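Private note to self, pasted from the team thread so I don't lose it. Backbone tokens:
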């Protein structure tokens, strides 16, 4: 992949406004479907867009169903149509590249598990270990590493296994959990969230510094509420809200602050009444992680326009479902020499 395209894809959607040669990406925070329009099976949103000489026009597009949920499969280039000023542009008229963001992304998932006495001594430990094992088995691979940390009443997270894509390293971390003893029988849940977000920030930054696309995911498992009171709920929620990571929570039993866990789990919250549902919940999280990665596509093409204002429409068709999103751009100064994979961008 061209490095400049990689740099384009590397930026989180909320930050895709950096520029090189003073050509900015413009984040489209208000680019949702227009009110009153009937969804025809697919909903498209342009997260950011750019138009730069010699004739490159590109957009980061999110594709979901009408409820905003990810599709069940990854789309290919044949599902995408490019229209300019309402007229369909064939690949011969406007060369294009459509890249699923997931294919170019290195993911790091941090699993943080409750090591308080109610888990370790309450008979939930084996199911928790098996749940983490199932999650790791589904997710880890060449583009996906997983780390495991624990928490109890202490101020800091307990490192059990650092980021790795090797199952033997995951098993070593799980073995530590199986032998863990109760150290501080309290629950620093809010502190665990703040510490985990900071740890994941650094883990993702390490990848991005190598000019590789990065995505962070946090999975937190607990059977209780915060008892340590070291960190306020607001600070935990602010840490989650200020990050670009996907955050998932799994809550076991009835002694939970379910409202706070739901607020922390911005990408999904899963609640189970009994230990028999723990493994299923971890599997549901892994499926959700993979599904969310299928939403975003980088669409780039070479416009034949050479001056003036124009409107790009990205249309997606999948069977009898369809949807589209629009982007306006100016082509002043455009000319020959465009390659759709060349979008000159730099980090902010």
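Design output:
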């Amino acid at each position: 992949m061209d490095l400049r395209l990689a740099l384009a894809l590397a930026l989180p959607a909320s930050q895709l406004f950096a520029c090189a040669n003073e050509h900015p990406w413009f984040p489209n925070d208000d680019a949702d479907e227009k009110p009153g329009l009937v969804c025809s099976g697919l909903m498209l949103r342009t997260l950011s867009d750019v138009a730069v000489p010699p004739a490159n026009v590109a957009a980061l597009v999110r594709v979901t169903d009408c409820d905003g949920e990810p599709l069940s499969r990854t789309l290919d280039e044949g599902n995408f149509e490019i229209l300019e000023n309402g007229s369909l542009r064939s690949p011969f008229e406007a060369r294009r590249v459509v890249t699923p963001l997931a294919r170019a992304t290195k993911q790091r998932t941090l699993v943080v598990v409750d090591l308080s006495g109610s888990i370790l001594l309450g008979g939930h430990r084996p199911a928790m270990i098996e749940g983490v094992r199932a999650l790791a088995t589904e997710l880890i691979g060449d583009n996906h590493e997983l780390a495991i940390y624990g928490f109890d009443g202490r101020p800091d997270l307990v490192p059990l296994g650092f980021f790795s894509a090797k199952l033997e390293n995951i098993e070593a971390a799980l073995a530590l959990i199986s032998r863990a003893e109760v150290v501080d029988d309290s629950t620093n849940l809010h502190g665990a969230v703040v510490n985990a977000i900071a740890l994941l920030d650094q883990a993702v930054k390490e990848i991005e510094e190598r000019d590789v696309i990065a995505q962070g995911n946090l999975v937190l498992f607990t059977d209780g509420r915060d008892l340590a009171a070291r960190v306020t709920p607001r600070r935990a929620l602010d840490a989650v809200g200020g990050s670009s990571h996907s955050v998932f929570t799994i809550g076991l039993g009835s002694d939970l602050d379910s409202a706070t866990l739901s607020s922390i789990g911005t990408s999904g919250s899963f609640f189970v009444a009994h230990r028999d549902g723990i493994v299923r919940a971890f599997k549901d999280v892994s499926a959700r992680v993979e599904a969310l990665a299928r939403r975003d596509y980088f669409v780039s093409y070479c416009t034949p326009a050479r001056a003036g204002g124009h409107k790009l429409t990205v249309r997606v068709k999948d069977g009898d479902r369809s949807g589209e999103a629009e982007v306006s751009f100016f082509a002043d100064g455009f000319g020959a020499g465009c390659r759709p994979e060349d979008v000159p961008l730099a980090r902010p």
